From TrEMBL:
Superkingdom per UniProt: Bacteria
Entry protein name: Nitroreductase A
GO molecular function, one term: oxidoreductase activity
Nitroreductase domain segment(s): 10-170
Pfam families: Nitroreductase
Amino acid sequence: MLKMNVKECISNKRSVRAYTEQEISDEVINELINLGTKASTGSNHQPWGFVVIKNKDEIQALSEETKTYLLKNLEQYPYLQQYKSWLTNPKFSVFNHANCLIIVYGDTSSHWYVYDCTLAAGNIMLSAHDMGLGTCWIGFAEHVCNAPEFKEKYNVPENFELVCPMSIGYMKTKMYPPVRKEPNIFWCR
């Protein structure tokens, strides 16, 4: 297992969209989720809940359902128009052909559930990177994974809303550090 310092981990983490077939053990998934729950949390509400899917056929079916939904409703999502060729490609997998998903939900009774659960997702992603795993936040899945039918199937309470659908797996290739433009900093002196 790799061990990096925090700066190294943050500086080198990338979204990963190509995974090997190697399965992630339940112990590793549990460790990642436990590390996720070490995130800061408003008023200590700890509003997170998690769905883990490790069935590759189920993930592929969910990818096809997501593609079908988005193509039928593309006019409602102008920000996804640029991906129409992906969505019509039968080889494209919304979940990057991963064999594991971690889906983060937040309890809406907490005003800060989106922030808290995003921090938890970030912890999971950085911890996964430290363990030699790759992750990718799957924005395409936000509609299907928050559908009442999906939530009912996976026993997600009605008052929990989707925050982060994430693919996760062992990286197929070595990733290089991301290149970022200079940040906008608005100083007050």
